[in-house]
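My current task is to audit a protein record that another person submitted. Alongside the sequence sits a line of tokens, each denoting a local backbone shape. Please read both lines and tell me whether the tokens look consistent with the sequence. Do not assume that whoever made the record got everything right. Thanks in advance; the entry in question is below.
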Amino acid sequence: MSTTQDQEKTYTKISADMTIEDILSKFPHKSQKLAHEITKSGLSCVGCQAATWETLEAGMLGHGMTLEQVQRLVDKLNAVLAEESDPESVQMTARAAKKFKEILFEEGKEGWGLRFGEQAAGCSGLEYILDYSEKADEDDAVFTSHDIEIHVKKTLLNRLLGCEIDFIEGLNGSGFKISNPNAKAACGCGSSHNY
């Protein structure tokens, strides 16, 4: 059994008395999505020192939020944990697939796939690439998610397997967002990552 599976069995749920650091470290395969939900709830302390000792509840109450808001966030975080993911695949959420299909239609490229990769860039070293892909190359691994083919160079699989591509809409910007359980570091702006 892997360490991640051991942790999931030991900590099956997130509770309000856990620190943000505990939440992110005990569920590394979901840490990017969990951090997004925490930040979206109004807590911007995902990377600050308070996250190491202050509980989620104390942090939220300290920022003027209510116990009901605390419980709503705990419920959302546990819903993220409950989402199925495949560490041996690259997937899209239904929301991302719908948006990608809309873009393909607008561009006259219906039926095309998604090219997913990464390149050197940004302050943390690498950034993700999303592009159109008419057909897979010989050196591609092909995944299908929500009727969309995702083409990934086989040389990148050790870093990109387990990724989930989502589409987020919000006041602070909209766009495709990648959750990568293999990434160990990301820049503050969220546009680059490293291993």
